[in-house]
């Protein structure tokens, strides 16, 4: 890394990294990515500055119908079209705990998508690239090739399990950090109430 940029690319584990934000479908394909931000940046900040984040924050209905949303972990903001876990303050209701369980279970597809990507292109983990624009292009190219492989059922079975250890799960940065939080909370509460019909 160039000397002036190096510190901003050092993550909390003291490793120089470039972030990859991704949205995946149920077939382990990436339908949206945003790559190239320094590893020291918080996921919520990267999301806020990404094209998809800007659109979801300003007018999410341009991207999704009213009854649809994407799933994120607690590092992301709670928005009408981005559902995140209920913040665990030790007083979650039964419905909220069930909501968190179902959200986490569904997000396994995301973890597996990253696992397949990193398993297929192991070099992504240890790039020897000093030009940050080339680094982002390399990662984007790997994601495109991954999608082509998935389309052709070219499965990579020896992928390592991906875990989001690099994501900060600090409770004070969870969920309600960016505007639109009220509409997202209302929608999440309605989903929790709906789950009440299925919990025995």
TrEMBL record:
Entry keyword set: Hydrolase, Metal-binding, Nuclease, Nucleus
Database matches in InterPro entries: HARBI1-like (IPR045249), HARBI1_dom (IPR027806)
An example Gene Ontology CC term for this record: nucleus
Subcellular location as annotated: Nucleus
Gene Ontology MF annotations: hydrolase activity; metal ion binding; nuclease activity
Domain DDE Tnp4: 5-147
Chief subcellular location: nucleus
UniProt KW Hydrolase keyword: yes
Cofactor(s) essential for the protein: a divalent metal cation
Family: Belongs to the HARBI1 family.
Protein name: DDE Tnp4 domain-containing protein
């Amino acid at each position: 890394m160039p000397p002036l940029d190096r510190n901003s690319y050092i993550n909390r584990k003291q490793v120089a990294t470039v972030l990859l934000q991704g949205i995946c479908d149920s077939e382990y394909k990436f339908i949206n990515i945003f790559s190239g931000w320094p590893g020291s940046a918080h996921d919520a900040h990267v999301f806020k500055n990404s094209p998809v984040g800007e659109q979801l924050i300003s007018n999410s209905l341009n991207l999704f119908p009213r009854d649809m949303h994407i799933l994120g972990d607690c590092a992301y903001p709670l928005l009408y079209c981005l559902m995140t876990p209920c913040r665990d303050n030790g007083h979650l209701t039964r419905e909220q705990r069930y909501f968190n369980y179902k959200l986490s279970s569904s997000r396994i597809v995301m973890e597996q998508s990253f696992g397949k990507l990193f398993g297929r292109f192991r070099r992504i983990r240890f790039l020897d690239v000093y030009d940050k624009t080339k680094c982002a292009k390399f990662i984007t190219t790997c994601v495109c090739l991954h999608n082509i492989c998935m389309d052709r059922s070219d499965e990579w079975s020896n992928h390592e399990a991906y875990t989001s250890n690099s994501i900060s799960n600090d409770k004070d940065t969870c969920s309600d950090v960016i505007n639109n939080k009220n509409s997202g909370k209302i929608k999440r509460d309605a989903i929790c109430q709906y789950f009440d019909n299925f919990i025995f």
